[in-house]
Design a protein that fits this description.
The complex is a heterodimer of chains A (315) and B (202).
Chain A lengths: L2 E11 L4 E7 L13 E9 L2 E8 L10 E6 L7 H8 L5 E5 L2 E2 L9 E7 L4 H13 L3 E7 L17 E5 L8 H5 L6 E7 L1 H13 L7 E5 L9 E5 L5 E4 L5 H7 L18 E11 L7 H6 L2 E2 L5 E9 L2
Parallel strand pairs in A: 8-9, 8-11, 9-10, 11-12, 13-17
Antiparallel strand pairs in A: 1-2, 1-6, 2-5, 3-4, 3-7, 13-14, 15-16, 15-17
Chain B lengths: L26 E6 L2 H11 L7 E6 L6 H7 L5 E4 L3 H14 L5 E6 L1 H13 L7 E5 L5 E5 L5 E5 L1 E2 L1 E2 L6 E9 L4 E6 L12 E2 L3
Parallel strand pairs in B: 1-2, 1-4, 2-3, 4-5, 6-11
Antiparallel strand pairs in B: 6-7, 8-12, 9-10, 10-11
The chains are: A alpha/beta (315), B alpha/beta (202).
Bound molecules: FE2/S2 (inorganic) cluster (FES).
Keywords (chain B): 2Fe-2S, Flavoprotein, Iron, Iron-sulfur, Metal-binding, Oxidoreductase
Pfam family, one (chain B): DmmA-like_C
GO molecular function (chain B): 2 iron, 2 sulfur cluster binding; metal ion binding; oxidoreductase activity
Amino acid sequence: MSAQVLQVAEVEALSPLVTRFRFVHPEGEALPLFSGGAHVVVEMPDGAVLRRNAYSLISDPLDGSGYEIAVRRDEAGRGGSRFMHAEVAVGDLLRVGAPVNLFALDLRARRHVLIAGGIGITPFLAQIRQLIRLQLPFELHYAVRSRAEAAAARLLPDLAQVHLHISEEGSRMDLGEILSGQPLGTHVYVCGPEGLVDGVLDTARCLGWPKGALHSEAFLAPPPGEAFEVTLARSGRKIAVGPHQSLLEALEAAEVEVPWLCRGGACGQCETHVTSCSGHIEHHDHWLSDEARASQSAIMPCVSRFRGADLTIDR
Amino acid sequence: MPRTEFSPAIFSRPVYPGLISQGAVPAIMLAEGAGAEALIDLALADASVMDRAHVIYIPARGDSATGARLGQLGAKMYHEAPSYAACLERYRKALADAHMGTWLYLAGSEGLIGQAAAEATAAGLPADAILSEHRGPVTRRMQCVHCKGITEEVATDPFTCAHCGRSLFVRDHFSRRLGAFQGVAIDAETPGIVPEPRSIQR
Ligand code: FES
């Protein structure tokens, strides 16, 4: 994947848990522009392991002078966000991939309703700049538990259609109210924890919204789990996957080439055929069909794990 | 009349998968002639589909019995009109008042479905909120690409444009924007040499 070395230009705490990073070209060259909702994959040389985490771009899509991301520190995660928080400082050089958009605005929509929960606000920060520039009607709902957690609050424009919902202060988001009475041609976008994504999609479906008007991104970081082993059908090699490593990372460390794009179980690029399996695949992706999942005939190495005696994959 | 079936056709020909109840959500239902049977079948399969439905029906000339049956399905609103043109203002108003979550059920000839779907799309209704079932003749609604005139109920290929009189070849190219197929001059390169018209009522 095309990645280039960028320099960290700014590191700023947005909240106790969330930090903003700005990357620029070391020689000041312009970076490729992107569209709202795009992400980049940041490579983190963390001791012996090379981590690659995807982060939504939060800066202006039409500003090539730098890329900005916001990283939430996840203590229970596999270490990528801890690395960003603890190790990365202004002046550091990191490899950053080219922007890829798997959560783009549908510009045929007549109105855009954006619903974010917590750190799920990140793709919308870039999208609303795009919407404002294009003068398209939109409304944004940003739900957080407490005011202290509202990391992005001051990155949001002061507009009447931007709503902050703080559940601790009693201003809970009412999905039924948001989704009722929207004019024809409205599209809904949701990004946040799985519960919120499911809540929005279920509410919309009950109200009769057609599928094509619903867009979601569950920010999926590969979950940690127990260590396991996989056998590669093509070479017969056995690869060990550590508890804080994804199968994809383990394959990469062993120099086995696997295509990828999102590293979050959404794009389908890394889909790998399972040739034999005795045990249980822990599917964490949003890609495979229920049948493929149940038959254990395929696995998404970027997020899914395995528990059992033998897993042989076609790599 | 049963559901109209086509032989497998080329890609740009519309398909009409049939009406499937989306439950008691707001709905606009527009049917013409034999399309009434599709709405009756729909209500038989799920009566609740009529709870919030606004039904507009264009009966075949002289047929008052079918409309009477449709009117008894329990729709929230029921209205009859002698032609599509006559109900267009009502239909447009219904679309203008609709919100996301409203479904559109269309049943009848291909010409009616095409025009009504184009109208709904222009009003912002997403294409995947439109359900359609083709009942009735297999004639086509054709637009002449030369004079832009629409000829209704075309049953042969080639046919004569009702507006400019050219002999037009019936293409399978369907315009969703116009809700019509495209007809092009069949003798543009061999003026006057026009093949025998053959029936397209397959
Ligand atoms: S890399 Fe996108 S699904 Fe695995």
